[in-house]
Amino acid sequence: MELAVACLLLAALTPCAVLAQNRPFPVLPATFIAEVEANILNRGYTVQVTEYYDSTNDRVRFESLRNGSRSVIIDDIQNGIRYRTDLDKQTCQAGNITNTSRLVNATTGVSHLLTVSDFFRFGRAYHDRYVGTKMVRGISCDQYTSNYTSTTPSGFYSSYVMQWYFAIQDNWTMPTGSTPGTAIPVRLELIGVSNFSRPNATARGPPPTGPPPTVPLHHFDHVYEFTNFRAGAVATQALTDPDLFNPPAGIYCTGLPIVKDLPVLPLQFSLSSTASSSSATSTYTSYYAYDFVRGETATFYDFEVFGNFTANGTGYGGRHHFIHNFREGTQYNITDDGCSLETLVSVANTPGSQDISLINGHAGLKSTNSLWQFTSDHNFTYQGHRTVLGVKAEVWVVIRTDGAFGGPANQTTLWEYYF
Prior knowledge:
Elements: H1 2-10, H2 17-20, E1 31-40, E2 45-54, E3 59-66, E4 69-76, E5 81-86, E6 91-96, E7 104-105, E8 112-113, H3 116-120, E9 129-136, E10 139-151, E11 157-167, E12 185-194, E13 218-231, H4 234-240, E14 253-254, E15 269-276, E16 280-291, E17 296-311, E18 314-325, E19 330-335, E20 338-343, E21 356-359, E22 362-365, H5 368-371, E23 381-388, E24 391-402, E25 409-418
Parallel strand pairs: 6-14
Antiparallel strand pairs: 1-2, 1-13, 2-3, 3-4, 4-5, 5-6, 7-8, 9-10, 10-11, 11-12, 12-13, 15-16, 16-17, 17-18, 18-19, 19-20, 21-22, 23-24, 24-25
């Protein structure tokens, strides 16, 4: 009774904790980019994390740097795939995302990425209580606290206190700008106990109360510093980097749960191509015609080499215009010095002859898939989508050690095909 009277008397001058419970909760964005310094006090290390969180399109990317090691986790909720990439070892492991993932909300029967409020476990639904204001890293913040205790069917037990600190609404601007009316998290403190084993754990405060677990507990004490929070910035970043939520190019992802047949290439096409190496750059255009009905085939190549290029002991340079006539079995090689006529059999292993297939001493025209060595006997695997030359493409990759396209034998090479 005395407390109530005191609050009434002081209400006009000083907000009481009782009245502060009605303070509106900060509005969290649907998407954000954040740089987070995760300090794991009980184990004595720091992890630098960059988060790209897009609940609008059900996707999230976490980049982390710990003890000099760089890794990336991408969750594609719509397709149910998680990619784990070790950037230092150049390895990638893909797998299914289940509805039990801590990032997935499947209550409607359709999997979606958690809202930011659910991801942060913050808001009225989590019984957060307003504590008051506090200076954090020189920023005036609103402080909220909540207690949480959970026991999962698998036996995982945790009980902890969360302390959230948000810059006072519209009172602080981040380096890249801020969105009016949107909360800016500054710090999260997490203190508690768990039966998920971690060695050498200590605590800076008493653990929350809760039902006794059946296995020994360890204490954990984490402080997460949000150093650059950008609300709604994911869409802009994705325009700059369209492969932000795709697995990285040049790294083979094993375990991808999607299986797709190789596309069948057309029987007629023309193309321009540039091939680069440490010793030369070659450009060529080609037209490839294959007519099963009339039994006629012909190919035409323009092949130009800049630098010094050697294949099978023969050096090549300058401009070459090849015409392959498979009905006659001849090649016309037109250069600045003139024109030479050779049999297709005799040039089968020289540059510009990748369309020739030798069978029992006879020169035949390869199928289009064989021409580009894009056949199922090479064990291609589907890798999902990436962007190349500004075009969204599907990607198949293969690892080879057989000296493909004139490369050295017994040297591992990764071949990526974009369609």
